[in-house]
Amino acid sequence: MGYSYFMIEGIKSKGIKMKRLLYSGVLLLIIAEAGFSQTDLQPIAMVNLIRSEPITVKQLRIEADKYEAGKTLPNDEKRRVRLEILNGLINERIILQAAEQERISVTDNEVNAYIQQLRGSLTESVGRAVTDAEFATLLRGQTGMDLPSYREQVRKQLIGQRYLELKRPNLRTSVATPTEAEILSTYNLYKTQFVQPDTVRFSYIQIPVRPNAPAADKNQAREAADRLHREIGSNAAKFDEAVIRGRTPNQGYNSREGEYLPRNPDLLGSVGQELLDVAFTLPQGAISKVIETPQGFLIIKVTGSYEMKTLTLNDVLLQPGPPMTVREQIAGTLAQRRIQEAMTKAQQEIITELRGRSNAFRIFENLLLSW
Questions:
Q1: Counting Cβ atoms within 10 Å, is residue 239 exposed (0-12), middle (13-18) or buried (19+)?
Q2: DSSP string spanning 283-345?
């Protein structure tokens, strides 16, 4: 008839033991996590240029994990990689402290202007305003950072750049201008890349649609495009007037002039087959039908056409902005490369000088393999 006293007491005893085991396991886990947290908070380096500033194990671990994720590295390779990353973090802190000593700073407005310029370039490339969510996704995909982290990185880069300009004020002007022989040699080396495909120049009116927009939004944009197309008809003058209006806010559409479209299969994903088909069959000066693209709906007018050819040094490149010849583009690219090389060299020289100061930094190498 039911459980005996001894059976019940045995079950109670086992239950108490099980509770003790569970408690011990939880306690060990808490102790392990606490130990891990304490290790994370330990300084693995100290930068002391103008004040003591620690770099913690956790800060190094976050950066090292980006490289080590999914890899099984031997300890000597781990040590080498982590020391290299740590030295990069030290160099960054040393430059920032040296800039602070020179009272160099960057305002929020300057950081905003830099980021806005980046967003503007992205807007031009996709042909419509980029949403905050799209910009955040792009940043994370390209840099692995969210917007606040990226803003902080931009601030550091601008401060470092200003410090470099302070210490090397004549750096850019001291770089030698590329010679004609160097330009010609570069052109001959990359000549096969200076091939202009069949290209059209056109103006457009665009009613933008967000990627993955609801069907209702897409239908509304289509109706707006059809309505605008009926207003313009085949009248080139009305099209030009609409293009001018599209440059002002709150028109419900945007517009551009002087765009170039090469016949290039790599563009299919961004502009769509329909735009390529229409643009290369539309008579010059005629108004197109409404064209659906991945970014929205377009109405275009072709203003020029150019056949495929291999460009010479004196040919003008078909691209937006002020006219530029192949020669000018090569010269500018070579000059920019030299400036970048000179800046990298100067930066290394400055960092070497700062690191050489007495007690500028200290590394606790015993912690490099602490996780």
A1: buried
A2: PTTPBP--EEETTEEEEEEEEEEE--EEPPTTSBP--SSS--BHHHHHHHHHHHHHHHHHHHH
Own/partner pairs, 289-293, CB within 8 angstroms, 24+ separation: 289/229, 290/222, 290/225, 290/226, 290/229, 292/222, 293/127
Instruction: Taking the CA atoms of 89, 91, 97 and 100 in sequence, report the sign of the dihedral they define.
Output: negative
85-89, 127-131, 243-247: the lowest-pLDDT one: 127-131
165-173 own/partner pairs: CB under 8 Å, 24+ apart: 166/102, 166/104, 167/346, 167/350, 168/346, 168/350, 171/339, 171/342, 171/343, 171/346, 172/339
Distances (CA, A) of 297 to 236, 258, 294, 304, 370: 18, 18, 8, 21, 57
Q: What is the DSSP string of 104-172?
A: ----HHHHHHHHHHHHHHHHHHHTSPPPHHHHHHHHHHHHS--HHHHHHHHHHHHHHHHHHHHH-TTHH
**What pLDDT, on a 0 to 100 scale, did the predictor assign at position 135?**
86
Instruction: Give the pLDDT score at 31.
Output: 47
Q: Report how far residue 114's alpha carbon sits from residue 128's, in angstroms, rounded to the nearest whole number.
A: 19
Q: Give residues with Cβ within 8 angstroms of 43, minimum separation 6.
A: 54, 55, 56, 57, 364
The answer for residues whose C-beta is within 8 angstroms of residue 185's C-beta and 6 or more apart is none
CATH architecture of 195-310: Roll (3.10)
Domain boundaries, the chain: 1-41, 102-167, 195-310
How large is the C-alpha radius of gyration of the chain? 31
Distances in Å between the Cα of 95 and the Cα atoms of 45, 138, 193, 281 are 15, 28, 40, 57
At 337 the pLDDT is 96
> What amino acid occupies position 42?
Q
